[in-house]
Amino acid sequence: MARHSRLQKKAKSFLCAVAITAAAAAAPTFPKESTAEAEETIETVAPDPTVVAVVEGPGGIGYWIVAADGSIEIIGTSIVPPLGDREPIMDRVRTAYAGAPGALGIWLELADGTKLAVGDPGPRIFTGNDRPPGWLFGLALKQLMKGRWIDEIDRGCVTELPRAVRIGQLLLPTMTESQFGAAIEESRDHQIAGILLSGGATPWIGRRINELQDFAGRIPLLMAADEEGGRVQRLHHVLPNLPSAARQVNERLELVAQRAERHATQMLEFGFDVNFAPVLDVGAGPGIGDRSFSNDPSLVADYGMATIEGLSDGGVLPVVKHFPGHGSASADSHLGRSVGPPLAQLRENDLVPFKEAISSRKVAVMVGHIEIPDLTGDLPASLSRAAIDGLLRNDLGFNGLVVTDALNMRAISDRWTVEEAVVMSLEAGADLMVLGTLAEVGAAFDAIDRAVHQGEVPVDRVDEAATHVLRAKKVNACTLVGRVRGVFNTVYDW
Length: 494
Known about the structure:
Layout: H1 4-16, H2 18-26, H3 36-41, E1 51-56, E2 63-67, E3 72-75, E4 93-98, E5 104-110, E6 115-120, H4 137-145, H5 153-158, H6 163-168, E7 171-175, H7 180-190, E8 194-197, H8 205-216, E9 222-225, E10 227-229, E11 232-233, H9 245-248, H10 253-270, E12 274-275, H11 297-313, E13 317-323, E14 338-339, H12 343-360, E15 364-367, E16 370-371, H13 373-376, H14 385-395, E17 402-404, H15 410-413, H16 418-428, E18 433-435, H17 441-453, H18 459-472
Parallel strand pairs: 7-8, 7-18, 8-9, 9-12, 12-13, 13-15, 14-16, 15-17
Antiparallel strand pairs: 1-2, 2-3, 4-5, 5-6, 10-11
Helix pairs in contact: 7-8, 10-11, 11-12, 16-17
């Protein structure tokens, strides 16, 4: 802007004369003369008629002073709308509007009534056909120039979030309904991703979840439960009983899908948006039993997909388990080390239903604690880069949310502390670490923080994992910048 230096000198005067800037922003045409009262307020400094509006900056920090030519002067904030290499605005700017909360851009209204986006104002101001052209212009261009696709814009904004938020979104503690009150503190102090329900549920659980979500505010909590059916159904006190997988396989696929959709709808009414189901393990190995649909991988795939489609249509995210397959493992991983078959056998048998589920793009994947000697060595899959980053991500092409099985199970806890386990699973490629209790959150949080600071885990790996979690929540990170709490519980920064 030709008058940048003059605007900087006058910024304090403009910000003090709120009435002038507000009137300028609301008026359909620019004011010809300032009022006598306004002239007295700014004394000898005449208001600049090129100033269109003063818009509060992202997160309520500082201001953006918008001129008639569309240029922007930043005052009190270091965040600049990513303008890119756009053409100059040929029509006169009439006014400017703030974008979505925390978004990195603003809306401009031109003299002819058209609307234009500068930077990334966020998608919540307009919807459908009302979105003006170029609504993602600035940030999209910036990301594309870096070789990223438009659907990865939120990844760029994740790096702007407080460190505590990025760490906390990787932790999912297990707790009973009676412990929900304590979850408020952890949501505030450690920004936990959500809750996995253990135990049963009372008729009041929906109200308690609503209270939790109200407190969580801008970053909703994932509310998860194991609703497989049969002997594993946490909500059986408040929802209809589901038959076990072994029983469901005797029913028509259409019925299975319809029941899953109906059940998901009811889960959602209580506030649960994630179901740790279906079980895609092929065979009734130790710890699995009637939780498996069949010994036939094609049947497991068919009935697993019917369940996935039903849950997804009902608005609940299915989490398929236990990758890469627990059906023929040597032991129950709840009780100790468990060894699975060779990789070649997994590819022919156990991985078949997982491939089908991944191709649907409707699921998250839970990685179990099974050792595959010729793939993971003596490491459980949940802690193995070869299993998660190699087999799941690269070989099978899964780019969604990866969840660990509970890290307090003895296949893990007999050999590693929770601090060691969360760091190893994160480094291996997992996004969301399931903790055995709420009490483990603090130690897990600090362990990840130290590991990143000491270079054991790249910052990019944390950002990638947090991006996957926020996408599973359907939250655009760009709308959170400057608007979420971040507690730095250590003296250093990354």
